[in-house]
From TrEMBL:
Protein name: Extracellular solute-binding protein
Species whose genome carries this gene: Streptomyces laculatispora
Signal sequence coordinates: none
Matches recorded under PANTHER family: ARABINOSE-BINDING PROTEIN-RELATED, BLR3389 PROTEIN
Amino acid sequence: MVMAGLLAGCDSGSGSGGGGGTLTAYVYGDDAVKIQEAAVKEFNKTSDVKVKLVPVPGTDYVNKLRSAMGSPSAPDIFYNWGGGSIKPYVDAEQVVDLTSTIKNDPTLKDGFLPSIVEAGSLDGKMYGVPMRGMQPVMLFYNKTLFAQNKLQPPTTWEDMQKAITVFKGRGITPFALGGSDKWPELMWMEYLLDRIGGPEVFGRIQGGDSSGWGDPAVLKAARTVRELVDGGAFGKNFNSVDYGNGGAPTLLNKGKAAMHLMGSWEYSTQLGKAPAFARKDLGWTAFPTVAGGVGDPADVVGNPTNYWSVNTRTKHKDAAVAFLKTMAAKSYSKALVDNGDIPTTSNAASTLDSSPNPQFAHDQYTMVRKAPSFTLSWDQALESQIATPLLTEISKLFAGKSTPEQFVTAMKAVK
């Protein structure tokens, strides 16, 4: 009975069933999954090998995938965040190296923005094909507050310090920050390190070199965080403000905070909570330069996109690649745009006018297209045994429970 169960599971997961066969694809089960459902339906119309989509509830996805990948019923294709999120599977030789496939196939090679494909790679090898919208971190601001105080969105650190001083003087918190959730604080460290030291510093860390935390740029970034906190840039109560329940976004749309560093999903969040504010008063710009920094001001951090990867155990690799190629289709891009997402395909610009906010869509797409580097969010780029203590140490730094020097020492010790 046990053997029969294992064989049945292997048949389901590897796609070795009768007829043309089946490819099982695990996907993050949220509202956007309807786009992938439609893509699967369209692909199955002409493919002998059929794709069976398995939506997994978001809160369960990571654990469900981990369990499945270690079982006979592992999926043939699976959704992921690239970087550290797939490293355990790459190390276990469970993920197909798609580097030569992508480079030798015009549809895959030319179909996506290079910085997006690169952001999902590991050790110079490509293991995923982009399949959802881009999510760069951007500096959002309240246009009315800036106009009332005769300020322009900051492009330099001096501009930002001036804005902080002006807004504090008016009793307005310069930056909303959901400190109780920890991960919003991570965005500050990500951009500061990029602007100060360039993307290569974190690249070393992501590559497994823990001594990279000792780079002088990391210490300067941590000290800059403390200067911002001590200078009142985030107000006095940011540790009790959340993002998930709308705390930080509400501060921005109610005019109690002037700016908010957040992923591009902030627009849709504001559209849902305060539609009039989102359409009229919500502005956005890139993170400013930092004096003395060597990072390119056009660099971006955030979640480049999500990716499809292929299990090495699949019996239908060619069909899996054929399905992945459909992610570059203009019709798929259009479906993402209509859902409020910004595709990562090279042809996306021609579809953006149908977005709920065409200007925001074009600005976001242009920002990513021109970015020399797109650094994946650290908590996704690093494996969990590093990402979890990282969030804890960053929270301690922001809360004043550790010094910048202690932050560096603590992270160098994490293996």
